[in-house]
Specification:
Strand content: 35-45%
Largest sheet: 8 strands, mixed
CATH superfamily: 2,3-Dihydroxybiphenyl 1,2-Dioxygenase, domain 1
Number of helices: 2
Number of strands: 8
Shape: globular
Number of domains: 1
Structural class: alpha+beta
């Protein structure tokens, strides 16, 4: 069964964990110094927060149960005319995942992903420059003109498939 995914950037993890734990009536399933994630069953939501980027909505997504669902979702997005970025075996948000990214007509990043393991680090090979700081996760970055392999934040218009990145 699919699970909706929401990732927010927050100013203060401890304060936000207190607020969302009270709101959801439970502690996070994953809690790190810069990240927290709740796996809610009613409604089925993977709700994550981090201090890794701008405050506010980072991206939305859909967590699927296997690679077959991921492939089917990516094919539907491509058939609808969306530029789809595929990421295999990425590490981000303390998880290892395979992903398909698109941007909606408003420019909001949407991630469809299958997580297949935990990771001990937030992400791999994060790239930060003065003009493009790392985002809270690896949402496609429309402001980047190229997406080198193993970068955090591929460009939806880039023609090359990134080898690995972050977020999960």
């Amino acid at each position: 069964m699919k699970r909706m995914h929401v990732h927010l950037g927050v100013k203060d993890i401890a304060e936000s964990v207190g607020f969302y734990s009270a709101l959801f009536g439970m502690r996070p399933a994953v809690l790190e110094g810069d990240y927290a994630k709740w796996m809610l069953d009613d409604p089925r939501v993977n709700f994550a927060i981090s201090t890794r980027g701008a405050v506010g909505l980072d991206h939305l997504g859909m967590q699927v149960d296997d690679t077959f669902e991921l492939t089917a979702a990516a094919e539907k997005l491509a058939a609808a005319g969306n530029a789809v970025i595929h990421q295999d075996d990425t590490v981000c948000c303390y998880a290892r995942s395979d992903k398909a990214w698109v941007s909606d007509p408003q420019g909001i990043a949407w991630e469809t992903f299958f997580s297949h393991g935990a990771a001990t680090v937030y992400g791999e090979d994060k790239r930060e420059t003065p003009s493009s700081p790392a985002s809270a996760c690896c949402a496609p970055r429309p402001d980047l003109t190229a997406a080198p392999a193993k970068s955090c934040g591929p460009n939806p218009a880039a023609s090359e498939k990134p080898a690995a990145s972050c977020c999960g």
